[in-house]
Design brief:
- The chain is mainly alpha-helical.
- The chain has one domain.
- Helices cover 49% and strands 0% of the residues.
- It has four helices and no strands.
- The chain is globular and about 45 Å long.
Length: 100
């Protein structure tokens, strides 16, 4: 499955693939980051992209799953957080140049 096909799957199917071991959380986030890199110059959709944090979170999700911990409904699935939410340690502009 290519990155495009993977990213167009519903979140519950992405999660099931992770839980079933068809793909790791790290592989899922890497596919997502490749798609962002491909289209972000045209879309300008992200204020801040925390690639390092995303990869660390994906590694933690994979470790948790491997240890047998229960997976939540979005376990390992990449999620973008709208810039209207304050994010500790990351720039938050509330979508306004005033807060930039």
């Amino acid at each position: 499955m290519n990155d495009r096909e993977l990213m167009f799957l519903p979140a519950h199917k992405q999660r099931q693939m992770i839980v079933d071991g068809e793909i790791s959380s790290v592989e899922m986030i890497e596919a997502s980051l490749r798609r962002i890199a491909e289209f972000e110059p045209q879309l300008n959709a992200f204020i801040t992209l925390d690639e390092e944090g995303a990869l660390k979170s994906a590694e933690a999700a994979d470790t948790k799953l491997a240890s047998g911990d229960a997976a939540g409904p979005l376990h390992g699935v990449p999620v973008a957080v709208k810039d209207l939410e304050v994010t500790k340690g990351l720039r938050t502009t509330l979508g306004s140049a005033f807060f930039n």
